[in-house]
Specification:
Order of helices and strands: HHHHHH
Shape: rod-shaped
Distance between the termini: 70 Å
Radius of gyration: 25 Å
Largest sheet: none
Number of helices: 6
Helix content: over 70%
Strand content: under 5%
Low-confidence stretches: none
């Protein structure tokens, strides 16, 4: 009779451990899916932002034919193998340059196509900001699960590691320059 109780206790403990394993594994996978979804939205909007910037570049080049304004870097950017974070930074640099050009030349500022493209950029940036926020929220949850018991055991078993936030800041390294702009 004691053997039956011992086997029953072992079976109950095994079932509980299996339920706990399934719960945390599914939680990790759910967060991973949300992160992948956010990455997809970010990637799609970065491509759209790039295309709009190329269109704006063409307007500027057509309107200011006599000026010595070059956008070689934007053409080369498409061939570079860089992260979405770095692509976002580079595109923002080009937008700052475009903003300066727009402020310096009235013909650019009043161009109807330019105004429409700038509205599209604004909408795209809003979508990007939302997707980045969604991404970082889910990265926080994922990193929390990877660090906490018992989900950390399951994460190690499935080789799930801590990921950096979209702003590329690593909270686990000794680099204090992460937070400088």
């Amino acid at each position: 009779m004691d053997l039956i109780y011992a086997l029953l206790i072992i079976l109950i403990i095994g079932c509980l451990l299996t339920i706990i394993y399934i719960f945390y594994y599914n939680k990790l996978q759910d967060v991973k899916l949300k992160i992948d979804e956010a990455e997809s939205i970010i990637d799609e909007n970065l491509r759209k932002k790039y295309d709009i910037i190329v269109d704006i570049k063409n307007i500027i080049e057509n309107e200011l034919k006599d000026e010595k304004i070059s956008f070689k870097e934007i053409e080369e950017l498409k061939n570079e193998n860089i992260s979405n974070f770095n692509m976002d930074r580079k595109l923002d640099e080009f937008l700052n340059l475009i903003d300066k050009i727009k402020n310096d030349y009235e013909v650019i500022k009043t161009n109807k196509d330019m105004i429409a493209f700038l509205k599209d950029i604004k909408k795209t940036n809003e979508k990007l900001d939302s997707a980045k926020s969604f991404y970082n929220t889910n990265i926080t949850e994922s990193n929390s699960l990877v660090r906490k018991f018992p989900s950390n055991i399951i994460a190690k078993f499935h080789n799930i590691k801590i990921k950096p936030f979209f702003d590329n800041k690593n909270m686990n390294d000794d680099d204090i320059n992460d937070f400088k702009l």
